[in-house]
Amino acid sequence: MHKIKTFLLKNGPLLATIAIFILVYAIGGQLYPAMKKPQVFLNLFINNASLLIISIGMTVVVIMGGIDLSVGAMIALSSVASAALLQNNLNPILVMVLMLLMGIGLGFVMGCIIHYLKVEAFVVTLMGQFFARGMAYVINESSVTIKNEFYNFLALTKIHLPYFEKAYVYIPTLAGIVLLIFTFILLTSTRFGRTVYAIGNNEQSALLMGLPVARTKLIVYSFSGFCSALAGIVFSVSLLSGYGGYAQSMEMDAIASVVIGGTALTGGTGTVLGTLFGVMINGIIVSILQFNGTLTSWWTRIGVGVLTLIFIGIQSLFYVGKKEK
Amino acid sequence: MKNKTSLFTKFRQSRLSWPLLALLLIFIFDGIYAPGFFKLGIVDGHLYGNLIDVINNGAPLVLVAIGMTMVIATGGVDLSVGAVIAISAAMGAVLINPAFGNELISNDILTQNVSRTPLGLIVLANLAAGTACGLWNGFLVSRAKIQPMVATLILMVAGRGIAQLITNGQIMTIYYTPYFFFGNGYILGIPVAVYIVLGVLALAWLLVRKTSIGLFVESVGINAESTYYSGISEKNVKLLAYTFCGFCSAIAGLILSSYVHSADANNIGLNYELDGILSVVIGGTLMAGGRFSLAASVIGALVIRTFTITMYTIGVPANALLAAKAVLVLVVILLYSDQARNIINNLFERKGRRKDA
Q: Which InterPro entries does the record cross-reference, listed alphabetically (chain A) (predicted)?
């Protein structure tokens, strides 16, 4: 009995997220029977692939007590840059590698400024956001189409799931799931993961314990840069184009997803699994609105706002109550 | 020689000097690369020119910066100012042409130069909507104890949705001429917006420097807990700061919607939260809270505005401007960082002392 209680207290926010997801999905299924089809569920992954990827990177950053506002703009930058490079007939694999390196590089630079110059992460990544979006428009002011066989292949190949008829996902969708599993293992069962949590709880004590704070911080921001570049590739593959105006204010969706997923913005607590459900809740609201057809998109924003509020309430119930003396 | 050093020290320690220096640098740049920049003319009895543009177009940003300074001084941040601007603008537009519910509004009603509501009431409703938003933020931060960034993020995400709800999802064009007075009007050849800004600035200055509220705000920003134990209601100080910020954003929304003759819930006041925060940062107020200077933030906002207009003048496309702004912020960050301060201190003052980087 006691064990169950500790389990509930420990995983409360995560369980609440999952419960709300199931609840919202059930309501949707009741209202629109078509939503019970497995493909609708898989569409959540397909449509939110890039949001999931940046949210995973964001989760790690937030657990460490930081924040990364540059992710949305990085998606735009890497989509435009890859489209422009592909127009010049570069090898698509090489383009992808270049994009990922660019993401890691920009994340690394931001991490350096945050750590060594002791500037607020919020201000630095805001600058990164401006820079990335501006550079995206410098590369090309209008939308660039991608006409590349390899990209077409990635975008249009359906992978059918076993046991479900007519249920499929696309290849880029898998990137998010692989990254999710990787990050889950990274955070839960490696020394690096423990260091991230330690820094998020108290950077000073982490430093005094002899943990590699500087290295970890740089790696985490580079990782977030990597994630956003990867999300940019996924984004450009699914739309087969690149444009500087893509993924406008997506960083806010990512932060909302992370918060809804039960990660505290104060750092130190949270799981990447919760983030998955945060993203899915975001997606299910959009799906319900689409099935309804008469409600307009602004309800998504209000819905996400209200849910964020509810989850912050739940969090303060679980975490803040515990932290206060 | 000694006198010169002390003058320099005085300059270095003044809070206004850095932002003023930045403004001066941009002006020097303009003087060299954009010769027509300082030209002032009089058209139809109005002053006219790039400099007037800076203060006229910059008025909403200055207002946001004033509100933001108060919030940041308490150790918080308000991300919702852009959304509040949209809500305030939507409120004004909808009261001129009511568009509640799902009823379709015929074009001939919309394009008439009449208002369904008296102008005074519209202004009051605008301000009330924004102030209510600020109150909500303040309530979440001070009473519900939510981190400022998250608390205001909620309104930032939901606010534009609410604004669209108010305007029924339409981009509402305003045809009611008296409403344009706030954004396009002139008194004695000077834009009305400037008078509004001066009025709000005077109000804020009286509030923080002639009463003890300013002191309370700074003390909350430095240490909220010890402020509480010294018998000051830190909750109410925070509540006041966020409410004031909402009020300022509401006026900004009024001026902006009146300036562009419309209320577009998705785009009006876009990125104002970022520009507002940058203004305060350039003004030298620490993001961690504590000492603040309204005048420095105002100059910070003008620096951003001047920089923007300068970039337009020398032909940088609007979209690429963001990258240029990023470089500006990077320079400011580097200048304001502890390392840079240490280097300057070591260079000019503490020559005899051991260097501690």
A: ABC_transp_permease
